[in-house]
Amino acid sequence: MVELTEQNISEIEVLVEARGVEMKELSYDLVDHVCCMIEEKMESGKTYTSALEESIASFGKKGIRQIQEETTFLLTKNILAMRKTMHITGITSATLLLLGSIFKVQHWPGAGLMYVLGGVSLCLLFMPLFLAVRIKEKPGKLSTISNIAGILGGIAVCLGVLFKIMHWPWANILMNVGGILLIFFFLPLYIYSSIKTKQLKTSTLVPIIVAVAGFSLLFSLVKLRNSQNVTDAIINIQYTIYDDTESALKTNNNILTSITTDSTNTHQKASEIAKEINTIANNLIFLMAQSLHQEIPKEELEKTIRLNYHSLSNDMGDLTFIRKDKGGISELVTLINKYESIYKSTTGISANLMLNNKNIESYINPKNTHFPLGIVTHDISLLNLQIQRLHTGLLQYHKGKVS
Amino acid sequence: MYSKELLKGTLKTIILKMLSESDSMYGYQITQKVKEITEGKINLTEGALYPALHKLEADGLLTTEKKTVGNRVRKYYSLTQTGNGRAKEKVEELKEFMETLKTIINLTPQNLAWSN
Description:
The complex is a heterodimer. Chain A is mainly α. Chain A folds into 3 domains: 6-61, no CATH class; 78-223, no CATH class; 228-402. Helix content of chain A is 77%, strand content 1%. Chain A is built from 15 helices and 2 strands. Chain A has helices at 6-18, 24-43, 48-57, 63-76, 80-106, 111-137, 141-166, 171-196, 202-223, 228-258, 266-292, 298-307, 329-347, 358-364, 373-402, and strands at residues 316-318, 370-372. In chain A, strands 1-2 form a two-stranded antiparallel sheet. Chain A is rod-shaped, with a radius of gyration of 35 Å. Chain A starts with 5 loop residues before the first helix and ends with a helix. The model of chain A has no long low-confidence stretch (mean pLDDT 85). Chain B starts with a helix and ends with a helix. In chain B, strand 2 and strand 3 (72-79) form a beta hairpin. The longest helix of chain B is centred in the last third of the chain and has 25 residues, at 81-105. The mean pLDDT of chain B is 86. By secondary structure, chain B is of the alpha+beta class. Classes of the chains: A mainly alpha, B alpha+beta. Chains A and B meet through helix 2 and helix 4 of A and helix 4, strand 2 and strand 3 of B.
């Protein structure tokens, strides 16, 4: 009775797998089958080498690979229709997303609709179908759990990105949940099952490396748009504006109390308007921040804006928050115009404020719904600072005239 | 040796019948046994046998058991309870089919004329 050595058998295993047999269960069958053929040939007097050659050759050039193809075909025949639907929805959603991004870049209408349709069909049709196909193709408790974690994570990340593009709430939460599912549940399960079935080789390792590296880079790209130095510098500009405004308000108060009342009282009227502008401007800045951070309580958010501004997200804030009849952006602009005309009629000098700034226009225009929080905050606070500075000048002018 | 076409429709039945005659068999054993019984007239190829075995296993008609034989893993296939029932059905079906085929094969011009 001829018996093959362990070395012979591992050589045969390598030969079978090199011919494209990836299914472990099939590979057991075929390795044993080849071994039996070789043993039979050796018993009739052939050497191991020639027996091996003959046996492998008897399968034909692509024979071994074809056995696996035929097996997969038989095993997946009944889910052929499901796979077809999966392919069609996959191609449709990918096309829609691609078209959507082209339309978005070109500023053509309809980009949003394409994103929504593409994203929804990707997340709610393609991915669940993919999950169903995976479960049918590869049954088993462990791979089912890992498939569910992977697909749910994928759906959450994709929906998160879609929500982010559409400026809908919950985008960050969706992306974070998806990321956590993928990195901490799917990936360990995937690696574990690869090790368990002894398939941890290049074809498994490369996707893992690409996925981890790609996700990390993408994550940093989303989270850290600017370098820390640039971010700090930008935030410092904002703090300087607040500091200057506060000191201007203090100065104005001091001058106001030192002025002995005169008959015209224009400076008091102007002071009232300046104060109201300050109140509304601060409130608008608060409302804008609130549109992105509804989870932070009111008092804490007020403190955060003033002292911990960098912890606020710099995403697109919702402009509808500052469009109110009373105390909204339009009223702010009206008040500023009113102040300007008082200033001009009193001092005879034009104030030349930045009210014709395109940004301010788009805050009022109902066509625009979103704008980066940092820019809106900056524009409104700068306008306020200019008014308070002008007012210092106006008050000093008055003081000089009276005394 | 019969053509692939002829074997195709009966392969599953042959496998089920072979397994119903013994407790369990491995792939190579099935091919050898069939060859022996048919005196080499029916030669199950690996390319047809293993896909069919895996399909039957996925359908729940067969189960496998792995044993280490001669330094390697050998998979023994055996019928499940459903597989046992199906084997009988399939064999009966094939018998009937062969009877029916006979009437066609034995058809002569006289028969045709008579039935017309």
